[in-house]
Amino acid sequence: MPKILNNVKAVSEALDVAMDKWKEVVVYGEDAGFEGGVFRATEGLQAKYGEERCFDAPISEALFAGLAIGMSLNGLKPVVELQFEGLGWASLQNILGHMGRMRNRTRGKYPTPVVIRMPMGGGIRALELHSEAMEAIYAHTPGIKVVCPSTPYDTKGLILAAIDSPDPVIVFEPTKLYRAFKQEIPDGFYTVPIGEAFKIQEGNDLTVVTYGAQTVDCQKAIESFEEKNPDKTIELIDLRSLKPWDKKMICDSVKKTGRLLVVHEAIKSFSISSEIIASVNEECFEYLKAPLSRCTGYDIVIPFDSGEGYHQPNPIRIQAKIEDVLNYKF
Amino acid sequence: MKTKFLNVFDPLKNQRVELMDKNGKVLNEKLMPKLSDKQVIEAYKLMNLSRRQDEFQNKVQRQGRLLSFLSSTGQEASEVGYAYPLIKGKDWFVPGYRNNAAWLTVGMPMRNIMLYWMGNEYGSKSPEGVNSLPPNIIIGSQYSHATGIAFAEKFKKTGGVALTTTGDGGMSEGETYEAMNFAKLHELPVIFVCENNKWAISTPYAKSTKAINIAVKGIGVGVPSIKVDGNDFFAVYAVVEEALDYARNGNGPVLIECDTYRLGAHSSSDNPKIYRPEDEFQDALTKDPLIRIKNYLINKGVWDDKKQEKLDKEQDEFISNEFDYAEKNKNYPLEDVFNFIYAEKTPELEEQYKEAKEFFEKYPEAKGGHH
Ligand SMILES: Cc1ncc(C[n+]2csc(CCOP(=O)(O)OP(=O)(O)O)c2C)c(N)n1
């Protein structure tokens, strides 16, 4: 029986399926046991699988990640929840310094197939440090894979792929989308392969690449643009995997449209868009009809709620960028 | 569980387990571990081997044939003392970076240790049947890793214990407390060792902490903690043996402070003469753990100068053979820098590998001086 779920319920569903399928899956995080975490993503798992497999962790982010490394190299599949991305910096030492390196350091003897999930991104009127989008740090790290699903189908499929993966995977869950909409998804086990993007719609004049909460903003922007410009069609791609990313799908699309706009809320410099634009430039230069472009957050400390609107791309900003790219003349 | 050491020697009163004096005379026969002469000699040989390897490595490092290394000189009783009672293939060793004697004891081939210090990752791959993680450079995190390993042991009911170690300086890292706290919450089979050698590079113990000893640092998180004379092989062995038993039987973690001294430099590029008081060093020399256990064996009539001479000669030959092997095998092909990043190369890595391969085939001299 397919289920109709929102994103956060798709997380629970994925964890439930995984814990049922592999008895070595262990889930923990702050308040993740009894209460099911602040977003209730792990709700019901402790009741179903016991305290040994789903438990509250003390507030000690450096430990969480280090613990998972030890667990994973000794045969378990830990799935760790960070309460918010911006509150988890202490775990970076272990993620970057050990998790990404252990397989290489031991020439393959001790891989660390850990999954770390974290709510990311803004637009939820939260406190300081609750709206960070620093995915580039993780994507920049050798040995780590990074995914960022935007739909319930992808959330379940990518989390299951992450748990099934022999490599450590960071799963960014856009907080703004947790309860934004529902979708019918298959029952039981299925995966969305890490590294494959999803084409939301076909188009001929511009390729828009995005991920996370901005998939929704981009859809709105494109819909409104296409209404006003019926002669133009825009191809929209949800990246889903940030590392590795689907260079082939994006390059094929740019070769067809000749134009690219990358959209994300993360800080502009040294970001996912930097990587995509540099790579597309290397591969598609002779196909280009306009400079490769992006619509992103600024290089600033993420503003509190009152200033957040200045920072995050929104449909109006994205639409303005689309117009700029399409109107560009050499 | 009935104990002879844990909860008997009180770190809050700065009590310390000592079984043998600095001349090798047994102080407390009743508490001595039950070890045969053969076993004690085996342990002594490992201590001697590590000491001689340190000396050898100092020499070749100065010749530029080793990048650098951190010596165990002065800490052999601690390291062999805690590593010797581990069960091979079942228990885990989760080291820091100053653990030469312990690595040899858990079964790490010397050639691997040398390869590591030559800058070759194959050196940190432990062979089948040796559950040892590589040297850990990021101080503190080994306590978390050991805790995770211990969690898995308990979860899988495989009965192994994880033993990890750091220095006195490392006990200032928050992660060590985080790990001990969690290990106690879950009653995990993990032994936390701190080799208190009094110095963290040039920072003395007194500038790392005001605590009267390291062992008290476990008490705040509820972990049974104990201080032992780290230059006394028997004291370390006996306490670790009890702690392993305690942890293996589901009683949770233990923190053990080995009170010892670093006789060598911090690393091969450090000069302790500029910060270490000479009288402190001279005093430490009189407590050399190697001399102490050797005197014990001589007093017992099972060791003498002739045996020592023969052993030194054999070990020197072994060390130099291992080094020859490592030196001859320190290079690996280009693909190995790409091969172990992910289970399978990502498309990006595949592309970059092809590019690098073509480049280095065309310009082999670009590989640099080491090849
Ligand atoms: C997290 C971290 N910070 C700093 C260093 C650099 N460092 C290497 S050894 C050392 C001193 C460690 O002293 P201690 O823990 O007492 O161990 P010892 O070297 O004396 O065995 C420092 C600061 C490091 N390796 N890791």
TrEMBL record, chain A:
GO terms for molecular function: oxidoreductase activity. Residues 5-180 form the Transketolase-like pyrimidine-binding domain. Keywords: Oxidoreductase, Pyruvate, Thiamine pyrophosphate. Its cofactor is thiamine diphosphate. SMART domains: Transket_pyr. InterPro entries: THDP-binding, Transketo_C/PFOR_II, Transketolase-like_Pyr-bd, Transketolase_C. Pfam families: Transket_pyr, Transketolase_C. It comes from the Bacteria. PANTHER family: PYRUVATE DEHYDROGENASE E1 COMPONENT BETA SUBUNIT, PYRUVATE DEHYDROGENASE E1 COMPONENT SUBUNIT BETA. This is Pyruvate dehydrogenase E1 component subunit beta. It comes from Spiroplasma turonicum. The gene is pdhB.
From TrEMBL, chain B:
Its cofactor is thiamine diphosphate. Residues 44-331 form the Dehydrogenase E1 component domain. The keyword Oxidoreductase applies. Pfam families: E1_dh (PF00676). Keywords: Oxidoreductase, Pyruvate, Thiamine pyrophosphate. It catalyses: N(6)-[(R)-lipoyl]-L-lysyl-[protein] + pyruvate + H(+) = N(6)-[(R)-S(8)-acetyldihydrolipoyl]-L-lysyl-[protein] + CO2. It comes from the Bacteria. One of its GO terms (biological process) is branched-chain amino acid catabolic process. One of its GO terms (molecular function) is pyruvate dehydrogenase (acetyl-transferring) activity. Its EC number is 1.2.4.1. The pyruvate dehydrogenase complex catalyzes the overall conversion of pyruvate to acetyl-CoA and CO(2). It contains multiple copies of three enzymatic components: pyruvate dehydrogenase (E1), dihydrolipoamide acetyltransferase (E2) and lipoamide dehydrogenase (E3). PANTHER family: 2-OXOISOVALERATE DEHYDROGENASE SUBUNIT ALPHA, MITOCHONDRIAL. Heterodimer of an alpha and a beta chain. This is Pyruvate dehydrogenase E1 component subunit alpha. It comes from Spiroplasma turonicum. The gene is pdhA.
